[in-house]
Design brief:
Low-confidence stretches of chain B: none
Number of strands of chain B: 12
Structural class of chain A: alpha+beta
Largest interface: A-B, 84 and 97 residues
Strand order of the largest sheet of chain A: 1-2-8-3-7-6
Largest sheet of chain A: 6 strands, mixed
Strand content of chain A: 15-25%
CATH topology of the largest domain in chain A: Cytochrome Bc1 Complex, Chain A, domain 1
Number of domains of chain B: 2
Strand order of the largest sheet of chain B: 1-2-6-3-5-4
Mean pLDDT of chain A: 94
Number of helices of chain B: 15
Radius of gyration of chain A: 25 Å
CATH architecture of the largest domain in chain A: 2-Layer Sandwich
Largest sheet of chain B: 6 strands, mixed
Low-confidence stretches of chain A: 1-7
CATH superfamily of the largest domain in chain B: Metalloenzyme, LuxS/M16 peptidase-like
CATH architecture of the largest domain in chain B: 2-Layer Sandwich
Radius of gyration of chain B: 23 Å
Distance between the termini of chain A: 63 Å
CATH topology of the largest domain in chain B: Cytochrome Bc1 Complex, Chain A, domain 1
Distance between the termini of chain B: 46 Å
CATH class of the largest domain in chain B: Alpha Beta
Strand content of chain B: 15-25%
Oligomer: heterodimer
Helix content of chain B: 40-55%
Number of helices of chain A: 16
Shape of chain B: globular
Mean pLDDT of chain B: 97
């Protein structure tokens, strides 16, 4: 309908709505992913910029490809404490003074620690870009790492760990990694443990910063109204004195533990059971990545997934259930997670195991499911690239996982080529029902009888402070 | 900076706001119903939110769930309920705008024929599980219930939480749900905003085509009820927590009312971030607490401000209370520093720019246009909203703190570990929470 012929709203002259069928969406508009311009400084720091001019903001993300998996044996939590110590003072300036400097810019500053990466990010009004970049450098390159600050930060983290004992989701996440991976570099949460933190010294943090937070493992991503050459100039000024070589990445070492099939961390009188089902599965660089993404979308990656429709919409056992392949640089876990009402614990486990087994072959995805899963992943792809932060996060994926420059252009066509056979094949290859491990954080007295009858063997009971 | 828009009203009363932004080939559809938990009555709480769930279970002409066709079109979608309003949104590729309008209009006009006892029972179970997950089985999760119940009297619409009481949820009948829909879910109680890659004339024509046929319904008048505290209400309860936590709360001005922005800035400079006064004293210097935070929770009738701090092991909530009251008294006596005012202004500017980045979702441009329209009848309020923060002064902030953060009229809530009543702030009586 052209603008000139649009009737006055509410005039009753509008064409009547046809409710006999749903409107068929028009073609998905083409959306060019913004180009990333790349340079590398003499010290090895990669500087990537993306143009994004909708609002007068610039978002800086500094990725260092070393994270909690680089924690030395017995020092779980070291990378996280090091990340905490970055903004606790620089040169002569105290932690408070650094944060006052950020606050004067209205900056949004954050650090994040993952298994494979440490990330510091700062977003400011464009007019403060240069000052913010200098501050980011002070924070990441020249943290003071003073003992008195370390003792305070460590104490806060110890308090946090104590509080996490009461959070069923946090208990489940920590316990599940340990059960799946054991002593493997992915076998602990970045937060570490009370024992490892108690044994940690400030020199450990200084040493970790010296060997891991180095330019050779780092990428600075700037998204905003920023000219590439000018931004490289600013980055050169701010980061020129960042030197030193970086230690090797941890290897995907060793064999995995032979864990029990059914595990319980007791939480007496809990109204819900916190449920985790999964296994160590596959790395980000798997050639099966795209079929696995489609398969997971259908199994547990969207509201209308098999798992959520079953446990929530059919049985009302939970507020929501989902699955994910946590793709990492090495083999990451596949995890199903849900909080289910205590009385429905055994039923939820049985149904979940049934759904995981089913999609491997016995109940292959239907053409309608495949079409929906692919459409959900591809048609709305453009909305993942709307804000500066989203663009920064997208570029970070390329930098962290060594993905090619045309990765985002190729995503949609690659997903569209996935077939139902591909889904069955990759799920059969990367999920093994015989190796699936179940963990419940819940009221053991209330559920013991039911879950004992599932045929998964006697539950192994783990004390809450074992992690 | 602003959010340019055009505004229209259909004959049935539906308000329509259109904002063009072609940066990304997507459109945000954002629909507000001016109904929330404050429209509920004692004994019937949790209703507005439970109803929101039922809106995703299918309507007369598409009775197979709400998500599937939209996700198949590449949409993301959600809804939320708070005390004052319920919102629903989709962000769709530009070519799927008509589908989203079809779906939203069908559930506005034709929900009841598809509403069954089975759907109702299922979603009540889901909501009870939402309540278990987010409140009952979470440390300190029952704090909102205790705070609101102490701040507002039993017949006040802000006395209860949006999730509602368990007994009320279990007692609710399908007929009540039907009556609720007829009363509140119609064009004259709604506002729709479309933001993004649209042709405004065509978008308006489509809205008219799909929503114009729906009957107007009876207008819903505003709810007004005052509330005030006359003393320091001191309560405590035991919970499955490791460390005791203190909550101080005050009744404060409504959203957008004089004093609201001052309290936003005052709570920030008191307790948010490492530069804040209470973080420096409680966490950094004296190490009495592991964390501290504060907020002005603005609502349509009135707001409430809250300061929350968790005691470090070996310390009591009495110690935390003393320091917090000292810092409030110091702010009330001396006002903020020039530097604190400058920081507050530039932080507000940055945050407002952030809010312009996205067309859809919670807090995106379409949601903001609807908020300004529903609460103020002024979708153009964005610039004035930022000005509220830019024009706060030392004097206005100090006067507001003096007037509202009154130590003699507040709620003091202690949540302590099981068996740890001695850690609570002194003279607290046991609160009943469920």
């Amino acid at each position: 309908m052209s603008a000139g012929r649009a009737p006055r709203p509410g005039s009753g002259r509008a064409p009547k709505a046809d409710r006999a069928q749903l409107p068929v969406p028009g073609p998905t508009p083409a959306f060019p992913f913004p180009a990333i311009e790349k340079s590398t400084l003499p010290n090895g720091l990669r500087v990537w910029t993306m143009q994004h001019t909708q609002v007068p903001l610039v978002a800086f993300t500094l990725l260092v490809r070393r994270g909690a998996s680089s924690d030395p044996a017995g020092q779980d939590g070291l990378a996280a404490v090091t990340a905490d110590m970055l903004d606790e003072g620089s040169g002569d300036r105290s932690a408070i003074e650094i944060h006052e400097a950020l606050a004067r810019l209205g900056a949004q500053f954050d650090t994040d620690i993952g298994s494979d990466a440490t990330v510091a990010s700062v977003t400011v009004l464009s007019r403060f870009a240069q000052t913010a970049l200098q501050l980011l450098s002070d924070i990441v390159v020249r943290p003071a790492i003073r003992e008195e600050d370390f003792l305070r930060v460590r104490q806060l983290r110890l308090h946090r760990l104590a509080q996490m004992r009461d959070m069923p989701g946090a208990v489940a996440d920590r316990a599940f990694l340990k059960i799946l991976y054991g002593p493997h570099p992915y076998g602990h949460s970045p937060a570490g443990s009370e024992a490892s933190l108690a044994a940690m010294r400030v020199d450990d943090v200084r040493a970790f910063h010296a060997r891991a937070i180095r330019p050779g493992a780092a990428t600075l991503i700037a998204v905003g109204d920023c000219d590439h050459a000018a931004m490289v100039g600013l980055a050169s000024d701010a980061f020129a004195d960042w030197t030193g070589s970086v230690e090797a990445e941890p290897r995907d070492g060793g064999s995995l533990p032979n864990a029990a099939g059914l595990n319980v961390v007791p939480r007496p009188r809990a109204p819900q059971s916190e449920l985790r089902i999964g296994q160590v599965s596959v790395a980000r660089d798997t050639p099966d990545y795209h079929p696995l993404v489609v398969a997971n979308t259908i199994l547990g990656g969207q509201f209308v997934s098999r798992i959520n429709l079953n446990l929530r919409e059919d049985k009302g056992l939970t507020y929501g259930a989902r699955t994910a392949f946590e793709f990492r640089r090495h083999r990451g876990p596949f995890v199903l997670q849900a909080s289910v009402q205590t009385s429905g614990t055994a039923k939820a486990i049985e149904e979940s195991l049934g759904e995981i087994a089913g999609i491997r072959g016995p109940r292959p995805v239907t053409p309608a499911e495949l079409e929906l899963g692919i459409a959900a992943l591809t048609r709305g792809y453009a909305r993942s690239f709307e804000t500066g932060e989203q663009l920064g996060r997208a570029a970070l994926q390329l930098a962290l996982y060594d993905l090619p420059d045309d990765y985002f252009e190729q995503f949609v066509p690659t997903i569209e080529r996935v077939t139902a056979d591909d889904v069955s094949r990759v799920m059969a290859r990367h999920l093994d029902p015989a190796r699936l491990i179940t963990l419940v954080v819940g009221d053991l007295d209330a559920i013991a009888g039911d879950i004992g009858a599932l045929g998964l063997g006697e539950p192994t009971v783990l004390p809450p402070d074992a992690f | 900076m602003n959010i340019p828009f055009t505004q229209h009203t259909l004959d049935n009363g539906l308000e329509v706001i259109l904002h063009e932004d072609h940066a990304c080939p997507i459109v945000a559809v954002n629909l507000w119903y001016h109904v929330g938990s404050k429209n509920e009555r004692p004994g019937h709480t949790g209703f507005a939110h439970l109803f929101e769930h039922l809106m995703f279970e299918g309507s007369q002409h598409h009775d197979h769930g709400f998500f599937q066709p939209l996700q198949g079109a590449g949409a993301t979608l959600n809804g939320s309920t708070n005390a004052d309003r319920t919102n629903y949104w989709e962000v769709v590729p530009s070519g799927a705008l008509e589908l989203a309008l079809w779906m939203e209009s069908d559930r506005m006009g034709y929900l009841l024929p598809a509403l069954t006892e089975a759907k109702f029972t299922n979603q009540r179970d889901v909501v009870l599980n939402e309540r278990r997950q987010n409140y009952e089985n979470r440390p300190y999760g029952l704090a909102p219930m205790a705070l609101l119940a102490a701040l507002f009297p039993p017949d006040h619409p802000y006395h209860w939480t949006t999730i509602g009481d368990i007994a009320d949820l279990q007692a609710v009948k399908l007929d009540e749900v039907r009556a609720f829909f007829r009363r509140y879910y119609h064009p004259a109680n709604a506002s729709i905003a479309l933001a993004g890659d649209i042709d405004p004339d065509r978008a308006l024509a489509l809205v008219d085509q799909y929503f114009g046929e729906i009957e107007a319904g009876e207008r819903v008048g505003p709810i007004r009820m005052d509330a005030s505290l006359s003393r320091d209400v001191r309560i405590q309860f035991e919970d499955r927590v490791e460390l005791p936590r203190l909550y101080l709360a005050w009744i404060t001005p409504a959203m957008f009312a004089p004093g609201d922005a001052d309290l936003d800035l005052a709570t920030d400079l008191l307790a948010n971030g490492k530069t804040s006064r209470l973080y420096r004293r409680l966490v950094f210097d004296e190490r009495l607490a592991t964390d501290v935070s504060a907020s002005q929770n603005s609502r349509e009738m009135m707001g409430y401000a809250q300061i929350t701090a968790t005691a470090a092991p070996g310390h009591t909530l009495a110690e935390l209370e003393r320091v917090i009251l000292e810092e409030i008294a110091r702010l009330a006596a001396d006002g903020p520093t020039d530097e604190e005012i400058d920081r507050g202004r530039v932080q507000a500017e940055t945050q407002f720019m952030f809010r312009l980045q996205t067309v859809g979702g919670f807090g995106g441009k379409s949601d903001q246009l609807n908020a300004y329209n529903v609460f103020l009848k002024d979708p153009a309020y964005f610039r004035k909203d930022l000005q509220r923060y830019q024009t706060c002064t030392k004097t206005s902030l100090q006067a507001t703190v003096n007037r509202y953060l009154d130590p003699a009229r507040r709620v003091t809530l202690s949540i302590v570990p099981n068996g740890g009543v001695s850690l609570a702030a002194p003279d607290s009586s046991a609160a009943v929470v469920s």
